[in-house]
Queue: 2 jobs
Job 1
Amino acid sequence: MKILNLIMAALLAVLPFTEAKGRLAVVDPILPLIPAPRAWQPAGQEIAVADLVRIVVAVDDQAASRQAELLVGWWHQATGRRIPVQIAGPGEPPAGTIVLRVTGQGPDTAPVVPGAHDETWEMDLTPDGIEIRAPEPAGLFGAMESLRQLALSAGANGTLPCGHVIGGPRFGWRGLLLDSGRHLQDVDFIEDLIDLLALYGFNVLHWHLTEDQGWRLEVPGHQALTDIGAWRNYGDGGRYGGFYTAADIRRVVSHAADRFITVVPEIELPGHAKAALAAYPELSCTGGPFEVETQWGIHEDVFCAGSDAVFALLEDVFDHVVELFPSRYVHIGGDEVPKDRWLACSRCQARITDENLDGVQDLQSWFVGRAARQLADRGRRLVGWDEIIAGGLAEGATVQSWRGTRGAVTAARAGHDAVVSPTSHAYFDYDVGELPLEKVLTFDPVPAELEPEHHHRILGGEMNLWTEYVPQTEIHRQLVPRITAMAEALAAPAGTKDFPGFLRRLHRHEGFWPVLGVMPGPASRPLQIRAEFGTDGGYRLLAHWRDDEDHAARFSGTGLRIQTGLASRPAQWRADVPPEKQPLPAPLEWTSAGFSANTRPPGDILAMARLESDSDTMVYGAPAVVELHESLALGRPVTLVHEPRERYAGYDSFPLTDGVRGGLRFNDGHWSGFEAVDLDATIDLGSQSVDAEISIRCLQDANAWIFLPTEVRFLGSDDGESWQELGVEAHDVPDTEQRVIIRGFSVRTGRKTRFVRVVATNHGICPDWHPGRGKACWIFVDEVLVRK
Ligand SMILES: [Zn+2]
């Protein structure tokens, strides 16, 4: 076997380090608060955490008394010390006191809706103690969470900088959407999540409780909603589901209220209702029967708009909802409603006639309007996704803008309130490669094109955590650390956020997350490893930025650098350590020109590049990791009958022969994607090879319309013109398979051959059960390997 020289290099020089070890000033000038306060005037002195020995509240300050009990617990967690709560005596408090004071008359409740509430606060830190003042209890709570952050980052034996802090969030609506429809979360877990939200100044838990894939709210008198609608039945006998009882909900709502968080329930209508229809098929247009949906996506069967029984059910559901949830907002969804069934339904068409409506778009607006009146009758207001704008907004409706920010602009100009959570900046179910921390930090809920006179209509924003691919165990990794950037976007003062400064504060938080049981994922996936081939048959690997933006400028001054390595297989990774924290095998020396190695381990190798911090243990970026496979086809040109789509054409010049296989994510840059056509690839190996194994791997990800080929044909030739069939391989993976699957196909040539041809037959059109039924499928192939 020819041993290739392997040269690893990078496009960028080493980033400068800004934080030399042991060079900190006597008093840390950084106030490690996230979100940043409105103002911070350091006084140049400090107070030891250990010197703070009591909390004092005024005798008649009941709001402060209640909150002081929370602070006692937090202080113990941060420092290991229990400090008492005392009633203020006459005169100045003694040294070592934390004074909590509510100076005004605000209600002791969560302040959503905003406007009537003042969440500002002030904090004085002096060598003698700390005093916190706020006009309303919600402001005091925000200040206490800030003090908690200071104590956690200082630790039991640390010090706090002295000075004057003024805080208070920019927006009144600072939320997380939690999807409990696709995956459920335990009540204990949700309570902990609420604590994390509170720590970062969030005040809304938008709880998505009903979906095609599960109805999670027990409703008295409608037991089938949860007996049937809460459970998904899989073809292989598997079952998934569960629901929340009234007692569960009360626990969550009460826990949240104690932390000034409002739980806004979402009951999806008229779409995303398949679970309810499985329980009550008569509420659909066709009458069913239905199963609780096991496929993610958009489904045609929705509530029948012509059925009065639908609204009778909603009456009961809303009665129960308003009893459980004190929130003055109820979210009704309203998104992604296919109109196919309504178009074909005589009852829906009769409704259009009776109500003098202009078609099915109008019918959706009418449906939402009727739900809005049901809520108004109960003293509640409606929030819906931006689809509720089509056909006219219901009176008083608030719009949640997710398809960009246009919905928010339209709503605000029409005199409606808006909550902003665009896919571009707020969808935390997206991989950090698509939505990295620094991009979240640039989020401004006020759309740039919105006129100043309408800005007050923007209530705030939310980060949306859809859970199709995020079971409970993955929620921390998706949320953290991006939750901190969203906190900054929603609650710090307006204006450009300073990324290096933000990272310095964030590093301090990373240090205390283990104390809170928070398990962060990576912040970004900025690097990609790419193979490049020389005319001599050798190749080198480039660690390069994932996109074309000027990362060098963006990362300068952050204390981050690229670290790379490569290893022989099997990789000596520790099974209990996530990839981004694995020790790097055989790290290579960097020079200003990049780095290089003259030797390459024999056989297949593993290469990794990642961004990491020089100043502490923080691993900023998820690593780029590739396995490089030996192959006679390595770097050989490929002739294709049909080109892959540009978006899925791989990152290399020869993605099918770069030795790099793809992972389970179809968009990881190593897959070539062909839409509606076969893969038909010919590779000239350059010289005749004796008996070898030819193999390819294909992906099935039905949710992404990617199906395995029906069969793969392998052909060989000496001249590239006359072909001999070497073998055909089919498979028995059903097209109903919902998991993401990689399937290999291979053949042994059994003869000398110079040209290798692989034909993988496209599945054709999406099958009947599929949301894209009748439309073209994709084939995804990562690599053609030819091995002895
Ligand atoms: Zn109907």
Job 2
Amino acid sequence: MDSTSTTDSVEKPPEQELRDELAESLIELGAARSARVIAAFRNVRRHLATPDADLVSTYGAEVATITKTDERGVQISSVSAPRVQAMQMEQADLAPGMSVLEIGSGGPNAALLSEVVGDTGHVVTVDIDSEVTDRASAFLKETGYRNVTVVTADAEGGVPDHAPFDRIVVTVQAADIPPAWLDQLKEGGRLVVPLRMRGMTRTVAFVRDGDRLVSDGFELCGFVPMQGVGENRVRLAVLHDVEGEQVALRLDGHPEPDTEALAKALSMPRSTRWSGVTLGGSESNEHLDLWLTTALDNLPLLAAMPGARSRGLVASVSPLGIPTLVDGGSFAYRTVRATDQEDRYELGAIGHGPRGQQLAERLVEEIQVWDREHRSDRARIEVYPAGAPDDRLPADGRRIERRHSRVSITWP
Ligand SMILES: C[S@@+](CC[C@H](N)C(=O)[O-])C[C@H]1O[C@@H](n2cnc3c(N)ncnc32)[C@H](O)[C@@H]1O
């Protein structure tokens, strides 16, 4: 481990200031809270993992350093942003002496985990891509983390040779929970995973309870997609495709849409409905959107390029996608407008197509239900094995069926 940075008596490396500033930003953002996580960020020389990247930006709290992009331009490997790494480490509730499996390598995150579990703990990091594991191994060797084992494999099967683990931290987007992850997690252990549920990804902290997983909080996040046996990408239904202005629906187990009719609807006049429900500028939609996907059956996400907004084709864009209620050849998506209160925005819906107005009203109704009944609630997410009978799952809420698991989202 990098002991040179832990005492004042030893000369500080030049980037120490950047690491200290990063630790302070993570504290301010509320991402790093425990002393060991904060200390880890002060110690790990993360810039050595990405020597081609700009030194200062590698210590930016929100900066993910992209290390690989596939032939279609999809980012498939990166060193995650420090804020996201800190958030997942806090979710994992790590302690010295623990055995941790990191799924998706890079180097810096394994080093951070190693700092927290200490010399009596052990970290195993697995990646499907040998280019990534070669780089991670070189970085961990150079920085002196000896309690980390680097494995090249498809993490669908976990890493049985080193199981069981106290914690499993997944750093790649997963649409399903393969049985090996549960089997290789100790009873009461925590699995932190960016789980995609009907297109919406949240990094969920799960606790193992027998053969099921029960959530203990989640956070909004974006991660590169899973490769290998568990690959399960969202599908795009393209409604408009002019360079820089693409508008599409992201489908994740949603019914096949009538793309032609929806494309026609997009070019028809819109109906706008407002809810009277407002959000502060720094409040995110993460809980509202999870409520909408729980309450409404056919709610894919609208993915539009900023150019589509500037041309007036759509009123809202977000890289995470915008919940969109679809029915036949009509749709309505969530939107916001400024209010006369500074930094407060009113939620509403914009409908297109023959039933656009009714769909906008329906979406607004659920926004109001969320505000009235669930604004201060948090969803409970549970994962059961695929073969679990219906009567084992909570009766209310939303069920998401995957190959290996049945995911349930319920609200108090
Ligand atoms: C965001 S990066 C990991 C970043 C790393 N945890 C860090 O910040 O230091 C995600 C990684 O997951 C890997 N990955 C994707 N699918 C995988 C699979 N099925 N098994 C193992 N690794 C996989 C990718 O190759 C990629 O390197």
